Amino acid sequence: MSISFRTVSHLNEDQRDALAEIVNIGMGQAGAALAQVLGEFVILSVPRIRLVDSQAVPETLAELVGAETTVSAIRQPFHNHLHGEAIVVYDEHGCRDLADIMGHDECTDERVEQELLLDIGNILAGASLKGVGEQLQAEITFSPPSILATHVPVERLLDPEALDWSYSLLIEVNFTLEARRFKGHLLIMLSEDSIDTLVRDIDAFLESL
Amino acid sequence: MPSSVPEGLLEFIVDRINVGILAVDRAYRIILWNEFMASYSERPAREVLGRDLFEAFPELPRKWMERKITGAVVLKNFSFASWKQRPYLFRFNHNRPITGGIDHMRQDITFMPVMDGQGEVTHVCIYIYDVTDTAVYQTMLQDALRRLAESNNRDGLTGVYNRRYLEESLEYEFTRARRYGHPLSVLLLDLDHFKRINDTHGHLAGDEVLRQAAQRITSAVRNVDVVGRYGGEEFLVLLPETDSEGAQVVAERIRSLIAAQPVVYGDTAIDISTSVGLATLDERMAAYTDLVERADGALYRAKDGGRNQVVVQVAGE
Amino acid sequence: MATKVLVVDDSAMSRKMMIRSLPEGWDVEVSQAANGKEALEAYHAGKAEVMFLDLTMPIMDGYQTLEVLQKEGLDCFVIVVSADVQPEAEERVKKLGAMAFIKKPVNTEKVTEILKEYGIL
Question: Fold for domain A13-207?
């Protein structure tokens, strides 16, 4: 498969490194929050950062999450200093595992299942971005999460025609539960103007070191 | 807050804003109850302040709320709930004339942790947004869209799916089956001597035959199977997750069900039967049209072989 | 004599922050490594009396590094510096022989406190 995303041209080596580390610390806090809620040990991934064209979003998602995966996902807009959307993508095992851990019998009731996906997504997105914001000394405010899609092929999760930006910064981290099949991906998508804000923040941050 | 805000103004706003606001301490005692909450619940602040939330409102989903409140306390994070998953938390009347069938006020809920100077959560503030209008609108819109989509997909005469929808389903199921290596079968049916029925008994009788045949086909298949009218007197049945053997059983069931009894139209009983061509996905097929073509070839041979029979595609054909 | 300190992290910025957080006046000779493999090489070359070790790294992560060190008979004071702040992560690295655990982001106060606690300063 040929991937047509551009590499992060906006960011030099130092900026990219700094962003990865800032995200890393944010997701560490999200991982701890998740571990606390689920009572399970969470394995964290190394963050992946991509600057993508909106047309290339479906294939980039497939590349990050795994092609031919059926997924459910929630979205949560954030605004204030940075704005964009956090998207949490769960594979099919994710839901069943979550229901099991939370003591539901199965994922039979669709509403219960969706509520669980929303709650866990809110925890991951909230804790990660709060951690990122703290390091950049920036306030980030959240809107309520909503269901983006359930049980769809990952390629169909986002329709490029429905995105109103031409390119975006995509940050992916994933959370795996040890001894279970659960895997959740947190994607942070920043709008074009927020990328510039972020780059300025990172420079200020690097300067302060 | 800037000190220029006149004293009492913030309290006034919190009290009068058109959003329900309440706050509880760590022991679930109510410490704030604004006018919105008071008027919709018909329980004034003086009656509920200081009381245990769940003791004052035993109808609340206690386990669920404790989980939300604990989440906000422990994780120091906002927590949300939407009417889409849980229509309401407090059972309030919505006082609206046009309801779209909605009984009580639909509510979106936000749980906000309130922290002291040391960063410890001392209280949780709960906002109740009245989203009944949105819910009414969305429910009506969804119903309309569902009806529209449904009518766009259906054949007007027989009520089974139309050719456009069949082709979409074929495309989707073909791609899926190819990708995951799952079996997929297609039945193509042509009612025998349909032209003669039309000529002998008239077009209205022919229409009734088509309706009856569609009903009999539908009653012989599973919910996941897709039945549609492919052309004049041709029907197509799409059988996901079904190999050739399974499809033969279904095809035979349809054939015998259709021939089992005549279609009664007015005083006339019209004998009907159908020929069936069956094809199953194999790895040499590049597009769903190959699959349909193969079924069409088998159907031709069923006609040729004397009608009222099922013919399976020959391997390597 | 200067204490030999090894800072292990895949992020250059994170190493820089760590080095900046070392207490002023502590006589040290600092080396750096970007993953567990490089860390072990530096350790074998005698460059690590005190090691500040990150957990999430490519090639060889902090857990794997600790396992190797433990097998070889740990002769080094390892302080894990991690963004993974689950209590269980701390328990696990301590079982693998790490002496202390510092939560990222690091600062001089946190580092000084730990070093004093263990009598290194």
Answer: Chemotaxis protein chec (3.40.1550)
